[in-house]
C-alpha cells in the first residue's frame, strides 16, 4: 500500500443478532427484487390470458402487492436464520483458530 501503514485487526467473536440482521436484510433486498420480477411475470400472464381487463388488473395488483410484501418478509426470516447459524458456527471456528486476522490500511 502506498504511503499507508497496515494494521492487523483480529475478529474473535461475531454478535449473532447483529450478523443475522445484516444477512436477513440482504436476503430481503434480494427477495424484493425476486418478488418484483415474479409479480411482473404473473401480471403479464394474467393480462394476456382470456380474462376481462378489469379482472386481470385486479388480480395483477393483488399479486404484485402480495409478492412485493410477502417474498421479502419470508426472505428476511430465512436470511436471519441463516445468519444466526453462520455466526454461531463462525464463533466456534474463531474460538478454535484464535480469531480471523484482517489487515486494514490506516491513513
Description:
- The longest helix has 45 residues, at 53-97.
- 73% of the residues lie in helices and 13% in strands.
- With 107 residues, it is α+β, with helices and mostly antiparallel strands.
- The relative contact order is 0.26.
- Strands 1-2 form a two-stranded antiparallel ribbon.
- The mean pLDDT is 84.
- The chain starts with a strand and ends with a strand.
Kindly summarize this structure in a few lines.
By secondary structure, the chain is of the alpha+beta class. The protein has 2 helices and 2 strands, in the order E-H-H-E.
Layout of helices and strands:
Layout: E1 5-11, H1 16-48, H2 53-97, E2 100-106
Antiparallel strand pairs: 1-2
What attributes characterize this protein structure?
107 residues, 2 helices, alpha+beta, single chain
Q: In angstroms, what separates the terminal alpha carbons?
A: 10 Å
Give the number of helices: 2
Structural class by sheet pairing and helices: alpha+beta
The SSE string, one letter per element, is: EHHE
What is the oligomeric state here?
single chain
Spatial sequence of strands, sheet with the most strands? 1-2
Radius of gyration: 22 Å
